[in-house]
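User: Can you fold this complex?
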Amino acid sequence: MATQVIMPKLSPTMEEGQLSRWLKKEGDKVSMGEPLAEIDTDKATMEMQALGNGVLRKILIKEGESAPLGQLIAIIAEPDEDISALEQGSAAQAPVPSNKSTEAKPEPAAAAAISSPSPVPAAGEVNGSSDSQARQSANAEPRGGAAGNGSQSGTADATSSGRLIVSPLAARMAAEAGVDLRSLSGTGPGGRIVKRDIEAALSQTKTAGAATPMQVPQHHLRAVESSSSPQTAGPSTYHDEPASEIRRTIARRLVTSLGPIPHFFLTTEIEMDRAAEMRRGINELDPDLRISINDIVIKVAAAALIAHPQVNSSFQDKSVRYYERADIGVAVAIEDGLITPVVRSADGKSLSEIAREVRELAERARHRKLRPEEYTGATFSISNLGMFGIDEFTAVINPPEGAILAVGSMSLRPVVRDGEIVVRQMMRVTMSCDHRVIDGATGAKFLQTLKKILENPLYLVV
Amino acid sequence: MAVITMREALNQALREEMLRDQNVFLMGEEVAEYQGAYKVTKGLLEALGPKRVIDTPITELGFAGLGVGAAMVGLRPIIEFMTFNFSILATDQIINSAAKMLYMSGGQFKIPIVFRGPGGSAFQVSSQHSQAMESWFAYFPGLKVVMPSTPADAKGLLKTSIRDDDPVIFIEQERMYGNKGDVPEDPEFTIPLGLADVKREGTDATIVARSLMVPVALKAAEQLEKQGISCEVIDPRTIRPLDIDTIVESVKKTNRVVVAEESHPFCGVAAEISMEIMERAFDYLDAPVKRVSGVDVPMPYAKNLEALAIPDVDQLVAAVREVSYI
Amino acid sequence: MQCAHFCGCRAPVLHVLTNVAYNQRPKTQQQTVSSALVHTALKRQESNRRPVRKQMSKQTAPSEMSTGPGEKSRTGVIDQNPLKAVSQQLKTVKQEQKHRVDDVDEKTLIELYRQMLLVRRFEEKAAEAYSMGKIGGFCHLYIGQEAVAIGAISAIRTDDYVLTSYREHGHAIAKGISPDAVMAELFGKSGGCSHGKGGSMHMFDRNLNFLGGHAIVGGQIPLATGVAFASKYKGTDQVTLCFFGEAAVNQGAFHESLNMAQLWKLPCIYICENNQYGMGTSLDRAMSFQNIAEKACAYEIASEFVDGMDVLAVREATAQAVERARKDHLPTLLEVRTYRFMGHSMSDPGSYRTRAEIEKHQERDPVKLFFSTLKEKGIIDDAALAEVEKSVREEVEHALRFAEESPSPGPEELYTDVYSNPIVPGNRAPNK
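Assistant: Here's the predicted assembly.
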């Protein structure tokens, strides 16, 4: 029985071997375990041992030649045995391992294509060539300097490289709320946009529609001062400050409000003596309650909204949504902007509950501790600038709400009652209405109800 | 419930489990006549006899391997390392034999064994006697790694470990043996492996801490509460299998996380926990995960240097404030 | 009767059986091997006067070590005149074997021969399959050492335990694992004795108390000690055979285990298969004091030097050790001198020893020796041999077919058997 000598696997990683030396020549007697040849593998030069007894009848590869694993390289057989079939077979033989290794190699052409230099643009270059100069200058700026400028320059850096630095959570919150991250300025390390920046942006959005002139920006004040200074000749001196992100958001949101929403305004004057009397009475009962006039306005507005569901509504493109609860957004001024925490179900809450809740929400709003669900989703808003001495003003609707009530200061004014001039505590309110859901008469009836209850707060308990 | 030390809790667990199952034996250096180098095995020789409580020569590789061999044929050894520093000598048997026997035998040989002893930093014993080994063992599939932080956890987890059919590395913190706490007296009181414990609930930031770092984290949380930051403190208790779900749930709530450990930072357990948080809760992170680890140097002897090498309350407080952008 | 080493130890002395291979021992010992003492006397002074050449590296070996034209012996175990030494040894083995044959029944003798031939043919087939790429990784063949596993394991009960190293195909077959399951394991198939997860180096069979091939040199020695500990703890009379190569003797695990085994009187039989090479490093390049059996003195363990080319010698030595272990829970160290005819593994370049050296040892081929003894004693003839040969070849061919046809493990098997009690983290239910 002939023994086919194949290129053996001599190491775990070997794929082909080079025959470095035959230790037997054709015609030599060989026995099992006797060294037959030396094979160079990927690891070492090793002796290949015979796995059969007989005579080395035929050597099929020369010294120095290589063969893939499994290829027939010699035949051991009895001296008189016919091995012609085996010899012929070896020519046609395509051992499996060798096929495998051939397949593993890429076609020469393909290999060339892969290795040929095909310049892939660096990540920044995909923006196109137009801003390449700007980018170059940005790149030329030493990084150390940029880092030293704190978060503002961090943002500028981020913007100039076209990359926003944003925390994963902030990115998700922004995506869910539809906030454009590029309009934000991060307050985290290196200008990273973090959760609180999104929260601030969202609160800004809400209150931006609710009240317009909140605080006079500092540089305006300075402009006024400078205009009154002796240097009045020629054009005014000025300085530019980058608009803060919250300011930019307010700007953008106001435009989206006044632009697409057809506003109209209704103003009425309300006699507040009884309401003020009631407030005094309640606070005398328990000084801790600290009910404000604004709390009473919230409560009464909520009652009026339940009575006039057309006002407690929202235009939804193809439908009008009427809310069943009166969730009142209350504009609260905070540093660098405003936010409208929501008093849920104000219609169902007592004055003391409303007072306590508004105080608590405002306090947390000032510390930026509100959760998103606490400043979104109001059905109606109230903005009160009475404490700033504003007699009356108009507010911008906070979409998608249908209306906002702008409350001015309460002051003693002469009014005519029963043909006589008397002095009363008067307060003017102006309601801005979205004409798509509220018509003039609808709005007017709501204000009538509001006025009636505020002037006779006993209605609250009947 | 009784207030006892962690040392006593461990002793109860050993005694109860050895009374419960005749196949459990305890072997190690000074466990019997000396009553335990740290007194954890005090009284066990008297109670259970020299056949069950066996003093060994100082031959960690040998008796660790002996334990694994005995476990192959049905015994349930508890192998005590006088400290886990010495387990380094035995790692061939722990890793190449205990961890892999079941797998490479195609499921034929389970290894119900507990390797236990004190680990982590000790008091002024310098580099070779003061180190945390858990990341070594937790790396290998086939091993379970447990690190209790309270007397009750120590008892409940050790009992479960002894009853478990797989090799368990049970690392007791040397500095915590004297810590006291309420421990149930019910002999059937056990705590499942692979279950994290929320040691304190909070809303603003999560601290993941194990072993020695748990009391440190709780103190830090107290301080932070006064500063208006509410911290959740999670003790995974079992390093492998790791109850990552409990950690991730907390991170989804707080959006910020600090992982505390006394071990070296490089390739450590905190690195793994941080990675898993990144993989599972990326979109909930408002700040990068922060690690507070022991420093990356061998443990020094000098008292002042040693104190600097181990994380303290102030470092944890600062880390939580950092991830809270305060 | 106490140790005759004059080393002062109190190790019990076994009856001598077997040291026909004493010519292989260093000369100083040859001079003192005179009687039926297992611990051939070693005087420390003599030990210190061992010939300098033993210490020399191959580069500095003097020409007197030459074993043939242009060749140099590097092992130090072949005598200056190897032909003479081997023929002398041959004669002795045959004489000894003939003597021992009388104590064993014919059926057992033929079965021993059949097993040795089976392992030989199995390993030859494994080599062939490896060279065809059907077996992966490492493959350490047992050719030349068959007498050790088969002789030793024939001396124990089926409920006794066996642990061994990574050169364990022969031990697995000797312990009763079918060649089918061993070959399928080599092929990485689900029909393998470790379901394809262990491979050549990790054969296991729980039902046959075959506790594994272990692939860290010396790693199985503490394990076997623990298995013996468990037998004593549980009060059974099972004994444990622990096989390892001579290179493992340099590991701490060996010394730690022997110390514990004698300290606690554990029924473990440590069988050192001294094939004279730790991979490519010969014994004299790796061990300062090469009489392994005598290292047992340090632990007062009984020990014996055994000719590993004589299957009956190994069987007899093991049987005595088993008796001590079973009755008295006492350990034994056997140093069994043998030789591997093939490379360390299939990827061994063989550059560290000469062909002449291998051929000299092949003259003492344990299979051939045993056959000629059996033939001389009229227990087996050429016709019977042919029959055994035929049945063995059929068995090996069957194993090959079984291995080829056995399915690969399913991909789900990747994740099984990591834990006996897998735990889903976060599960509040008590663990099993």
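The domain at 19-32+72-407 of chain C is CATH 3.40.50.970 (Rossmann fold). Chain C has a mean pLDDT of 83.
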